[in-house]
Design brief:
199 residues; mainly beta; 6-stranded mixed beta barrel; 4 helices; 13 strands; 13% helix; 41% strand; ribosomal protein; Ribosomal_uL5_bac-type; Ribosomal_bL25_C
Amino acid sequence: MQIEFKATKRDAQGTGASRRLRRAGQLPGIIYGGAGEVSLITMDHNELYHLLRKEAFHASVLSIEVEGAKESVVLRDTQWHPFKQQVLHIDFQRVAADQKMHLKVPLHFVGDDVSPAVKLGGCMISHTINEIDVQCLPKDLPEFISVDLSALEAGQSVHVSQIKLPAGVELVMHGEGDPVVATALLVKGAATEGEGEAA
């Protein structure tokens, strides 16, 4: 289900204008990219604050209604107040149905509690990466990607290349190598009594 919210256009620019909007419970933002020009918008701060707490808001194509016209966008940048629970500014980028987009998608780890590493090896699973960069058409964008750890053995790691990607989704790699996503680390003092008997 697509997340939808409303915005209104704003004309006033500058720090003073933005401060006045924030005092009135509004959140200034922009929409850029695509065929349209940069649109200055304002939204309800509390509504967006709660939406930003949802993981899906950060890795989904969103529907923003600006004065009756709906646009498909993705979240690109959020500026927060240094110490208050307040969003200062938010940037969205337009997406076109026929153009591939590039976005970070969260990883959901499943099966680690039933893996041999945890059940038999006395290991703890360490998640070293919690999101990956992908490229796909807006219709193929997953809200998250599952990483199955149920077969992980003690001392083993899962690498980015081993993640099963949904159809139409490509991995965007940065630099060389194949980064580790999760590792089974032996917890000190967790060696089992039966270890010496197997030899």
